[in-house]
Amino acid sequence: MAGPAALLVSIRHQAGALCTLRAAAAPHSLLSPPQPSHTQASSTSRSGTASHSPGEDTEVSKPVGAQKLQEERKALGKRPKEGEESGNLSPLNPDESRSERLAQPGLARHETLREMALRSKMSRLVEATSLLVQVEQTLLLPLLQQHPLFLHPKDSIEFRNICSHMALQREGQQFERDLHEAHQCLKTIIEKLICSLAVSPSDSYIPVQSALRQILRDLLAM
């Protein structure tokens, strides 16, 4: 059996994990697709009009033809480069297959949905941790003075360590694995608390059980 001291240890580690989670949940790009190079696009656009270079034009011996050619050169010099007129700086490569072009929008949508899912999962983890600490401080801690119960501070220590490791990753597959482990660890903490409260003969723990069950449902919500 454990009293308020053991719960305070758990709360301290959970509060530390909460601070780490809030910092890790700050807006950042998890899956940013590569953007086309502006310099490369501009050079490609210029190469598309290289066939109009004055040095490559055929000389005309007749004066009238020469004058007409000069006028055409001036007109070509003032004409907007292909791609700039429509505002598109990345002209399509004629060698690029249609299947490759069609696959790109789908990939971008898949990455965006994946990023949204990660943000949603992180948000649920932050909210559940915050609510758990509040319930333990305001409801459970005062009751432990009259009715001690079984607690597991080691789970809270592990939870804080996972969150600290996750914050160092910030992105990638390891970040996702740490996020999943943090979810599972917090789920274990709440479930063990509910089980400990269930074996207690005191009816005063019923509101605490109800609050913990609601936190667990919100944490696992899809």
Structural account:
By secondary structure, the protein is mostly helical. The protein has a domain at 112-221. The protein contains seven helices and no strands. Helix 1 runs parallel beside helix 5 (153-169) and helix 5 (153-169) runs antiparallel to helix 6. The radius of gyration is 32 Å and the shape is elongated. The protein starts with a helix and ends with a helix.
Question: What labels describe this entry?
Answer:
single chain, 222 residues, mainly alpha, 7 helices, elongated
Q: Helical proportion?
A: 55-70%
Distance from N terminus to C terminus (CA atoms, Å) equals 35 Å
- Cα radius of gyration in angstroms: 32 Å
The shape, in one word, is elongated
Q: In this structure, how is the largest beta sheet organized?
A: none
Beta percentage is: under 5%
Offer a concise description of the structure.
Residues 28-108 are annotated as: Disordered. The chain has 222 residues and is an all-alpha fold. The chain has seven helices and no strands.
Q: What is the fold's blueprint, element by element?
A:
Layout: H1 4-24, H2 38-47, H3 63-78, H4 98-144, H5 153-169, H6 172-198, H7 206-220
Helix pairs in contact: 1-4, 1-5, 4-6, 4-7, 5-6, 6-7
